[in-house]
Input
Amino acid sequence: MRKYVLITGASGGIGEAIAVKLAEEGCHLYLHYHENKKAIENLLERLKAFGGEYIPIQADLSTKNGYKKVTKNIFSLDAIIHNSGISHYGLLYDLEDGMAEKLINLHVTTPLLLTRELLPKLLSKGSGGIIVISSIWGQTGAACEVAYSTVKGAQISFVKALSKELAYNGIRVNAVAPGAVQTAMLEGFTFEELEGIKNEIPMGRLASPENIADSVSFLLSDKSSYITGQILAVNGGWYT
Output
């Protein structure tokens, strides 16, 4: 029987790679996006070859009640991939209230409330998976990314606590913590800056979105049936 999976932020580089990977494996998908309708349309066209059911859902998850637009469009559900996110680079001293609120809503409040609302659907199945796409900076922190590190660290605490709460119900909760991934999130860096990052990574290269998608696939599969509450670091050895 095919599983139904919700992917938030499916219009981004990592979200798209996750969608393609899970569609290849036979999953039906709820594909959340915010503004990039064209990217979702292209993704839907790409997914046609896999013969599943792919449902786009538009919502701004950085707003207070944005998650409600998603929950009302979800029916059968077997897994949630919390992938939506934005980065923020700058000194804490210069952080504006609006950006702080947006970061917290998108990375912390929405995953918390969206999961709460959808839990009955997972519990009714007696099994399921919840995966959060966190970050290396949630594990170790980064100067000039204090706010981003804070919310990504909160996601890791969310995973560790919720995994204990749901383990007996057959629902596994894990996170993937990528390092530097070759997506639009790095477009603000110069060639020289990116080369500097690569030189810091023991494997000498950035991750591809597909590297992250493969990790998500593993954590949803029966191969990880005894793994919950874990943070899978996919960073080329940058932080261990």
Notes: The CA atoms of residues 9 and 15 lie 6 Å apart. The chain has a mean pLDDT of 96.
